[in-house]
Amino acid sequence: MRERGFAIDDEEHAVGVRCVAAPIYSGPGRVVAAIGVSNRASETTPEELKEMGAMVLKPAADEAAKTPRILNALNRYYSISNNPKSDSS
Length: 89
Description:
Layout: E1 7-10, E2 17-27, E3 30-40, H1 46-65, H2 68-81
Antiparallel strand pairs: 1-2, 2-3
């Protein structure tokens, strides 16, 4: 959810799996990566996911977004991986 700064997947994508992730921004509205955790639903409650998102993932993503070295690496990686080389022949 955008307001809280992280998203939770409570078995929506895969039965038996719960996930939480926070986006890493390189500018306003520009997500370059995300940091997340996945676990078996039987081992993680939705409340634990919210706690992980708020106390660990959101702060880590915010810190990464303020660290030029991390942003440069992410921008470089995703620029290369999302732009296949064109054929010049």
